[in-house]
Amino acid sequence: MPTTLTDVFRGHPIHLPHSHQPDFTSLRELPDSYTWTPKDDLLFAAAPSPPATGENIPLIDLNHPDAASQIGSACRTWGAFQIANHGVPLELLQGIEFLTGSLFRLPVKRKLKAARSETGVSGYGVARISSFFNKQMWSEGFTITGSPLNDFRKLWPQLHLNYCDLVEEYEEQMQKLASKLMWLALNSLGVSEEDIKWASVNSDLNWAQSALQLNHYPVCPEPDRAMGLAAHTDSTLLTILYQNNTAGLQLFRDDLGWVTVPPVPGSLVVNVGDLFHILSNGLFKSVLHRARVNQTKSRLSVAFLWGPLSDIKISPVPKLVSPVESPLYQSVTWKEYLRTKAVHFNKALSMIRNHVEE
Ligand SMILES: C=C1C[C@]23C[C@@]1(O)CC[C@H]2[C@@]12CCC[C@@](C)(C(=O)O1)[C@H]2[C@@H]3C(=O)O
Ligand SMILES: O=C(O)CCC(=O)C(=O)O
Ligand SMILES: [Fe+2]
Prior knowledge:
Bound molecules: the ligand C=C1C[C@]23C[C@@]1(O)CC[C@H]2[C@@]12CCC[C@@](C)(C(=O)O1)[C@H]2[C@@H]3C(=O)O, 2-oxoglutaric acid, fe (ii) ion
Helix content: 10-25%
Structural class: alpha+beta
CATH architecture of the domain at 74-194 and 209-308: Sandwich
Number of strands: 12
CATH class of the domain at 74-194 and 209-308: Mainly Beta
Largest sheet: 8 strands, mixed
CATH superfamily of the domain at 74-194 and 209-308: B-lactam Antibiotic, Isopenicillin N Synthase, Chain
Radius of gyration: 20 Å
Strand order of the largest sheet: 1-2-10-7-12-5-4-3
Mean pLDDT: 92
């Protein structure tokens, strides 16, 4: 039987201090354990991009006849873009935002009833990447893989069925959109369905799987010294992020520093993950990103993390490999890659990189 994301960390427990999750609303000062300096994260204080550069992540209209080449170009230069006219109903986006807000407004004691276990993927807790840092992040999260029924029943004894339907509908819409975006990006490189057999469009997407990550960044007394979610890349093919109307997401560009992604109501942020970087033989950039917090408005985000079934081998598309452009990466399944990432974190990509003899 093919393994799913639920099994990924079974043999690989990650020790996370969920039970120390504070009641953020009660903290008037930033505790020491939440105070970040460049020692805790080399890029913590890297220069923010000056607004005067005018360089901004592209906002792409999916109805534009040139959308494929705009997406391809954004994947190469930014590893990310925003999309408008994506076809996901506004009520569904509002619905998922409402669900996320209601979840995080529950008392800590209730949320901990659905706490993520050390060997599990789903449930409430601190960010999985917390184990790589000495300092705590100013956020809380809830991860959904498979059916959220059991967890939702513990959180909302009355309303859980409605919320399960909402998540199912959201995942269905995101899955269709993610596949459309992947093919638009690949088409821009001249790659078509014949080139990637496992990812056929006409397969009801039965080769793909996903996780939904709900994030909450509470109002913070000293935002400049705190970190919402530390710099990381996603392990996915693509991630589609809904953010509420509060800024906080930042992308790193070597030439610009940290660039804030402004919230555009109704639009979605898309970012290239490590597996798409591998598939494109390094042409698409797996973008380093993080979330900052602020003093006046709490922030919510919902990340749809999308990739292939755990046992599908991902390797650079042969068409993008030539005697000059040899395959940059070894082939890897999502499951193998998540395990490599669970050990080596931001060095995972370099661990599977082929070293070409000069
Ligand atoms: C499918 C997954 C991707 C993810 C690990 C996970 O098993 C479920 C949560 C995902 C997430 C969300 C926040 C950032 C991230 C790096 C993390 O720690 O958990 C990603 C993981 C990833 O993309 O590698
Ligand atoms: O909250 C955000 O803007 C970023 C979230 C994120 O990067 C993630 O969940 O992987
Ligand atoms: Fe992310």
